[in-house]
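Quick one: C-alpha cells for this chain, please?
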Amino acid sequence: PAAAAPRVRGRRQLAATVRDLRERPLTLAFLVAYLIYNDGIQTVISQASVYGSEELGLGQSTLITAVLMVQVLAVAGALGMGRLARAYGAKRTILGSLVAWTATLAAGFFLPAGAPVWFFVLAAGIGLVLGGSQALSRSLFSHLVPPGKEAEYFSAYEMSDRGMSWLGPLLFGMTYQLTGSYRDAIVSLVVFFVLGFGLLARVPVERAIRDAGNPVPDRI
C-alpha cells in the first residue's frame, strides 16, 4: 500500500492537470497538434532503419552511420531553426518544419535501392529538422503554461507524448500489411504532419499565451 501511494497521487495530479487543461482549450489544442505531428516524427526515426534495410537493401554500417549523422545534424538544425524562430516566430518556424518533414518523406518514397549516398542525404534532411521542431515545440508550449504550473503541465506533456507513441507504428505496420510495400508505409506517415500542420495553424498562439497569464513575446 505504501509503495502504491505515489502512483495514486500521480494519477490524481494528472487528472487534476487534465481538468485544468480543459479550462484552457487553446493550450490543449496546441498539445493535441504537437502529439499528432510528434508521433509522426518519432515513427520516422524508429522506422527509418527498417525502411533502409528491408526496402533499400542497405547494410548495417550504412544505417549506423546515418543514425549518427542524424544525431549530429540535429544539434545544428536546432540552432538554425532557433535563429529562424527569432526572425519569423516559433509558430511559423514549426509550421515550416512540418512542411520540410512532409517533403522529406516524399523524397524518401523515391529513394533508389542500394544507393547509400541518397540515404545519407535523406538522413541529413531528417537531422536538420528533427532537433529544431522538437525544441521549438517545447519552447512554445512553455509560453502556454500558467505560471506556477510548469511541472505538472510538462509532466502531462511527457506522459501524453508516450501515450500516443503507438499510433505511428500502427499506421506504418498496417499500411505495409495492406500494400506489401515499405515505400507506401513510410509515405503514409505524411498524414501526421499534414494533420498536425492544420491543427497548429488554427491555434491563435498570442491569445493562448495571454489566456495562460503570460506576457506575449515580440515574436512568437
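The chain has ten helices and no strands.
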